[in-house]
């Protein structure tokens, strides 16, 4: 007898807010034409989150359907994001299937959920949440041990206090010896030039980044 499930759900489906084709606006793959798969739902509530529309709603899709839609755009790069993608357990097999299909796969994740089961072919872009996000108590520090050299740690900075926290964490955990570290200003909260000047003054071994898609499209949906 078939299992009884809530309407619209199935055992091998993921809840998806959007799949869209754009230019990667963040992290090491910045500038590449990329297909984004945005999974619905997040257990965090970062004060400055630019993707609150992904917290609720979404539609259930099978992994096969997601692969077919991704393939239709003819891009080499796929970015799995959210919401918090790792909050859905089917994210792990989705990532492996995307790698098997030959894509360069990246994963945007909050740093609050266990990353140990993520396929090693995936380039993880893991945030560490600074205090002004309101969610720094959720950082899962054991995740640092699972970072590979192609992964990246991103700290999104809203103030001088966040910057000093980030500088301290970088030194304490020697994160730059594990992988690339990105410092990014919260869009609209800290002057990008100010953050750039702090990094230069302190000679930090980090990569400054701005969200390219906000410069290009001013945060319009589907970009
Ligand atoms: C929307 S999140 C989705 C993935 C995951 N939940 C996370 O937080 O990494 C994707 C990236 O956007 C960043 N982000 C969200 N809102 C932002 C903002 N207002 N300014 C700069 N970066 C932001 C997050 O820090 C994260 O690195
Ligand atoms: N163009 C573009 N690049 C992105 N890189 C990461 C994104 C995200 O929301 O996780 C994102 C996004 O929303 N748009
Ligand atoms: S973890 Fe990511 S999606 Fe969730 S609230 Fe924070 S920035 Fe937004
Ligand atoms: Mg975004």
From TrEMBL:
<protein>
    <recommendedName>
        <fullName>7-carboxy-7-deazaguanine synthase</fullName>
        <ecNumber>4.3.99.3</ecNumber>
    </recommendedName>
</protein>
<keyword id="KW-0949">S-adenosyl-L-methionine</keyword>
<keyword id="KW-0004">4Fe-4S</keyword>
<comment type="subunit">
    <text>Homodimer.</text>
</comment>
<feature type="binding site">
    <location>
        <position position="83"/>
    </location>
    <ligand>
        <name>S-adenosyl-L-methionine</name>
    </ligand>
</feature>
<feature type="binding site">
    <location>
        <position position="81"/>
    </location>
    <ligand>
        <name>substrate</name>
    </ligand>
</feature>
<dbReference type="GO" id="GO:0016829">
    <property type="term" value="F:lyase activity"/>
</dbReference>
<comment type="function">
    <text>Catalyzes the complex heterocyclic radical-mediated conversion of 6-carboxy-5,6,7,8-tetrahydropterin (CPH4) to 7-carboxy-7-deazaguanine (CDG), a step common to the biosynthetic pathways of all 7-deazapurine-containing compounds.</text>
</comment>
<dbReference type="InterPro" id="IPR007197">
    <property type="entry name" value="rSAM"/>
</dbReference>
<keyword id="KW-0411">Iron-sulfur</keyword>
<dbReference type="InterPro" id="IPR024924">
    <property type="entry name" value="7-CO-7-deazaguanine_synth-like"/>
</dbReference>
<dbReference type="Pfam" id="PF04055">
    <property type="entry name" value="Radical_SAM"/>
</dbReference>
<feature type="binding site">
    <location>
        <begin position="23"/>
        <end position="25"/>
    </location>
    <ligand>
        <name>substrate</name>
    </ligand>
</feature>
<keyword id="KW-0456">Lyase</keyword>
<feature type="domain" description="Radical SAM core">
    <location>
        <begin position="29"/>
        <end position="219"/>
    </location>
</feature>
<dbReference type="InterPro" id="IPR027621">
    <property type="entry name" value="rSAM_QueE_gams"/>
</dbReference>
<feature type="binding site">
    <location>
        <position position="42"/>
    </location>
    <ligand>
        <name>[4Fe-4S] cluster</name>
    </ligand>
</feature>
<keyword id="KW-0671">Queuosine biosynthesis</keyword>
<comment type="similarity">
    <text>Belongs to the radical SAM superfamily. 7-carboxy-7-deazaguanine synthase family.</text>
</comment>
<keyword id="KW-0408">Iron</keyword>
<dbReference type="InterPro" id="IPR058240">
    <property type="entry name" value="rSAM_sf"/>
</dbReference>
<feature type="binding site">
    <location>
        <position position="38"/>
    </location>
    <ligand>
        <name>substrate</name>
    </ligand>
</feature>
<keyword id="KW-0460">Magnesium</keyword>
<feature type="binding site">
    <location>
        <position position="49"/>
    </location>
    <ligand>
        <name>[4Fe-4S] cluster</name>
    </ligand>
</feature>
<comment type="pathway">
    <text>Purine metabolism; 7-cyano-7-deazaguanine biosynthesis.</text>
</comment>
<feature type="binding site">
    <location>
        <begin position="48"/>
        <end position="50"/>
    </location>
    <ligand>
        <name>S-adenosyl-L-methionine</name>
    </ligand>
</feature>
<keyword id="KW-0479">Metal-binding</keyword>
<feature type="binding site">
    <location>
        <position position="46"/>
    </location>
    <ligand>
        <name>[4Fe-4S] cluster</name>
    </ligand>
</feature>
<feature type="binding site">
    <location>
        <position position="51"/>
    </location>
    <ligand>
        <name>Mg(2+)</name>
    </ligand>
</feature>
<dbReference type="InterPro" id="IPR013785">
    <property type="entry name" value="Aldolase_TIM"/>
</dbReference>
């Amino acid at each position: 007898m078939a299992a009884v499930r809530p309407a619209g759900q199935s055992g091998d489906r993921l809840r998806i807010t959007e799949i869209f084709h754009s230019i990667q606006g963040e992290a090491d793959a910045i500038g590449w034409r990329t297909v984004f798969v945005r999974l619905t739902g997040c257990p965090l509530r970062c004060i400055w989150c630019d993707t609150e529309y992904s917290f609720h709603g979404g539609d259930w899709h099978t992994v096969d359907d997601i692969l077919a839609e991704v393939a239709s755009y003819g891009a080499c790069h796929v970015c799995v994001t959210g919401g918090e993608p790792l909050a859905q357990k089917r994210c792990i097999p989705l990532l492996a299937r995307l790698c098997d299909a030959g894509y360069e796969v990246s994963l945007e994740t909050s740093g609050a959920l266990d990353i140990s089961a993520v396929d090693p072919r995936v380039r993880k872009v893991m945030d560490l949440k600074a205090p002004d996000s309101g969610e720094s108590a959720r950082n899962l520090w054991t995740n640092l041990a699972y970072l590979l050299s192609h992964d990246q740690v991103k700290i999104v900075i809203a103030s001088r206090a966040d910057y000093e926290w980030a500088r301290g964490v970088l030194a304490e955990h020697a994160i730059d010896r594990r992988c690339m570290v990105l410092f990014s200003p919260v869009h609209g909260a800290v002057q990008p030039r100010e953050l750039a000047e702090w990094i230069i003054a302190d000679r930090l071994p980090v990569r400054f980044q701005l969200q390219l898609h906000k410069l290009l499209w001013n945060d319009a949906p589907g970009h």
